[in-house]
Amino acid sequence: MAGTIPVTPVRRIVTALLLSLLLFQGPGFTHSGKARYHVVIDTDGALDDLRALCLFLASADIEILAIITSDGILDPRDSQERIEALLMRLGHEGIPIGRGVPFLRQAPPWRELNRPIPWIREANPSSPRSESANASAQPDAMAVIRQAIRNEPAPVIFICMGALTHLARLLNESPDLCNRIEKVLWYNDSLRAATGTNHALDPEAARIVLGSSLVLEALSTGKTDQAVLDEVFLNDVAAMDSSYARIITDSHGVPSVASLLQRRHLRFWDDLLPVRLLHPACFAFQPDDEANRRRVVRVRDWAAVKRKYLQILRDRNRVRSRVFEGFPVAADLFAADVRPFVAEIIQAHGPEEWRLGVLTHELHGHLGIYAVIGTKMGLRAREYFHVGIDDISVFSHAGSTPPLSCLNDGLQVSTGGTVGHGLFHVKSTPPFSPEATFAFKGMRVRLKLKNSYGLRIMQDIKNGVDRFGANTEPYWRYIRERALRCWLDWDRREIFEIRRGRPVTVGAPPGHAPSTTRPTHEEEIDSE
Q1: Residue 18, pLDDT above cutoff 90
Q2: Which structural domain range is residue 153 located in?
Q3: What contacts 24+ positions apart, CB below 8 Å, involve 26-31?
Q4: Same domain, 73 and 197
Q5: What pTM does this model have?
Q6: Would strands 181-187 and 216-219 be described as parallel, antiparallel, or unpaired?
Q7: Final residue of a structural domain among 317, 336, 356
Q8: How confident is the model at residue 139 (pLDDT cuts 50, 70, 90)?
Q9: CATH number of the domain encompassing residue 183
Q10: Which of 158, 172, 350, 430 has the fewest CB atoms in 10 Å of its CB?
Q11: DSSP state of 122
């Protein structure tokens, strides 16, 4: 129920939007908001792989279907645990991880160099952990690869940052799934000569893959001095306001890495693969066979590559609106009581939560506490799956009775999984609660507001009714004040319990598989 307190000076907002439309016409206005590339990433845990993963994760144009660990610079379990910690720190723990089987008779000489380098500083023990964060429970790499490809209707790009072992196995065991792989991006010195670290890790796998019909690009920097990763570039990374950049800065700030930097040992290696995927114009392509299924890739413009590298790390800080470019952040555009919160909310929770919160409350008709919770919950679910807007379906457990059902407006705005898209469903029978189940390409997760926060909301509402009476003007002012405080003070990474549901195999052929798995059966959802 809406009060009569004005939420924002709507006319000024609309004026700002129209000006944006006139000034910033361009392709961003027609972009669907969905990822352009769907990738499976195979890594052996090297330090340059960490940089590459940060770039892949930072890009909103890339959907990571799965991350697989293979034997190489680190053993598969060590890599898996590091990746798990990385995804947990960044809030993307819904990305499936598959662990490969060790096969090397002798560890590479670089293992002892890479093993002591920490990827993540010690995690905050108060941070919430989902039930998926169990290193020993991770599925086999091949099972994860097959599930990821089967559940993806779009062509898949296979990113290989180590040996081609898993891809060779896929060719031998599931050749039908290889037809869904658009191309393979691999870091290696060459295609013709049996050279390069990643080739040497498993020469037989390389022979099988290179002899197949897969389209494969081998990227190499050669021996040019321009490929050296130096302190100047890392200082540019350190200066960025990006959680992905901070991971790189922290991991490269330890003494052992500083020594490598001083000796000019570190180079741009696997971390060029996401740059090549997103900005191919920076690279030169040389066909290596008559059918153009094999291509050698070299950097064409190093200055442009480094600019694009930094640009990718900033990508998720960029707000993507469907109607206009950016989103208003000038405090004087907003109501007097909102103005003091604008900069603080953006600083604390990012520009995307700010945008979604504003849109939610304009739709909702007033600033409400449960609407705030719904906005934070939906955005947290998107981060969990590492997806954009309009990609996941939502089953709300909040019912249809206010104030709890106000959660539904925030959920729809923040996920794009709306009633109009057929992606939003509401539990119709009690009990109701501040939680929702989210489904995406065979995966499910349930987010529930922690009881301590739910009790505080109930107490706030009771205090408002006791002091001012229900639905009075003073009551709505009080609720508005509490909603602003909750918006600012409550961190979406802290306030929810996260529980992974049973996976679902989609398995339809390309062009026919749904983009989401709709959780429409209440009995099935409630039984998880």
Answers
A1: no
A2: 37-317
A3: 26/325, 28/320, 28/325, 29/322, 29/323, 29/324, 29/325, 31/320
A4: yes
A5: 0.87
A6: parallel
A7: 317
A8: confident
A9: 3.90.245.10
A10: 430
A11: P
